[in-house]
Amino acid sequence: MDKLPVKDLITQIEALCAENAELKRQLADQAAEIQMLRDKLSGGGNGSSAAPFIKPNRAQRREAERQQRKGRSQSFVRKCDVPTKEIRHEVQNCPNCGRKLKGGWEHSRRQTIEIPDTPIEIVDHIFIARRCGVCGKVHIPKLGIADGVVGKCRVGPRLMSLIATLAIAKRMPLRSIQKLLESLYEVHISLGEITEILHKVAGFAQHIIQWILRQIRGSPHAHCDETGWREDGMNGYLWSLSTPGLRYFHFVCSRAGAVAKSLLGMCFTGVLVCDFYKGYNLYDGPIQRCWVHYLRDLKKLAEANPDNENVCKWVESIKDIYKAAKKIARRGFIEAIRVEFRQKLEMKLMATAQPYLNDKSAPQRILAQRIEKHLGELFTFVAYPGCPSGNNAAERAIRPAVVARKVSGGTRSKNGSNTRTALMSVFGTWTLQGKDLLDACHNMIIESQGQIEITAQ
User: Which of 99, 163, 326, 389 has the lowest CB atom count within 10 Å?
Assistant: First the structure.
């Protein structure tokens, strides 16, 4: 074999070295590409080759969620109630080998809420008569509210409060209340006795009702509304006066505006918030007509004329004026500026309604005429701070009475109407004030009966 010259050997070695370097570079590129594919498959850079839906990188995901989650001022987890009784549950013997188990530690807790299965408490009051050895007179003790006795009624104050709450606040029929008491407490109370209990509770509420009416008459603004009611099959009207924290109801057969004027009394000088019923025109003070009713009529007008572009634009222009008035009312302007804004809004609203007042072919003619008729009563809330623009408070106050009327059909006597309105007034007021209805009614009975006992002495 012929030996290659040294020069050729050197050239061959250099070629092999260059080829080796190229192979190493390709190997490094392939290793980097493999690592990149592994990272994409594993969802991270930990070298796992599993797909995300098989084994996700939970640590990185939880860390990202923790960083994106907003801080909370309090926990929204349901808190445990204060227990009234604790029951320990222990395994006495090992289920595998049967060995007796001792000691242990608290592993966890679980709460259950249950009503007690106890009958109603029936108290027999025994009167012991004693004769005085000096004067010879016989003395018999007298019972009062401190002994759990309300007058000559055999029902205690707590049961009276429960019956009144179920009948008025929960709108349960008397027969349903009777059956509920039999199921829960195994006590039978006749329907006539339940009715008399409601009359007694209404009698205890008279001093609170008078206080409610005085407070409403002295408030800066009051809501008024009325709805139909039936007494012994005859149609009448249930009137409502409301403030943010008070409610008062009164039944009368008339819907005349004189009823609202007499309810408000001579001392009421605030703003009367009402709907567009003309009976409220008898009030001499400032009136705020309900924009909620008017906006509802505007919506009906737009829905009835969807293809009339002129009507839709007119409705939107009225809404824009009202939104501007609401923005002004929320600003803390002084009285003079508020009056000036009110005048400008009234002029702008009247200019919007003017072209359609006498146009009998215009669908918006009726609503435009309503603007002309009540122009001075639509933006009263702009001039009087705190006055609402709608009569929603009266609507919410009278809605439970409407539901009760549909269930019961009304009342059957004058005494029943007075009882219903009295209890609706006190329970409606307690609801607005956020009081517990059972406790409030119970306290009212105790205070009223205590005052009666003091007066009798």
Answer: 99
Selection from 291, 324, 302, 267 nearest residue 395 by Cα: 291
Chain-centre distance for alpha carbon 172: 20
β partners of residue 229: 236
Confidence (pTM): 0.75
- Residues 311-360 have pLDDT tens digits of 999 999 999 999 999 999 998 888 899 999 999 999 999 999 999 999 88
* Residue type for position 115: I
247 φψ region: left (φ > 0), alpha (ψ -120 to 50), beta (else): beta
Instruction: Tally Cβ neighbours within 10 Å of residue 280.
Output: 21
- pLDDT tens digits, residue range 207-242? 999 999 999 999 999 999 999 999 988 999 999 999
Q: Around Cβ 265, how many Cβ atoms within 10 Å? A: 12
Which residue has tokens 């007179």?
Answer: 137
Ramachandran region, residue 43 (left: φ > 0; alpha: ψ -120 to 50; beta: rest): left
Strands (E), 125-171: 130-131, 138-139
CB count in 10 Å sphere of residue 324: 15
Other residues' Cβ atoms within 10 Å of the Cβ of residue 336 = 8
Task: Please choose, from the candidates 430, 453, 424, 455, the residue with its C-alpha nearest in 3D space to the C-alpha of residue 443.
Answer: 430
Distance CA 182, CA 185 (A): 6
Dihedral angle at the C-alpha atoms of 363, 364, 366, 367, nearest 10 degrees?
A: 150
Query: Cα–Cα distance between 109 and 64 in angstroms, integer?
Result: 32
242 φ/ψ sector (left φ>0, alpha ψ -120 to 50, else beta): beta
Q: What are phi and psi of 376, to 5 degrees?
A: -75, 0
Can you give the residue ranges of every domain in the chain? 291-383
Question: Hey, what's the torsion of the CAs at 264, 270, 273, 277, to 10 degrees?
Answer: 50
DSSP 398-441: HHHHHHHHHHH-SBSSHHHHHHHHHHHHHHHHHHHTT--HHHHH
Print burial letters for 284-303: b (CB count within 10 Å at least 16), e (below 16): eebbbbbbebbbeebeebbe
- State the DSSP string of 304-372: H-TT-HHHHHHHHHHHHHHHHHHHHHHS---HHHHHHHHHHHHHHHHHHHGGGSS-TT-TTHHHHHHHH
| Of residues 298, 296, 276, 302, the one with CA closest to residue 287 | 276
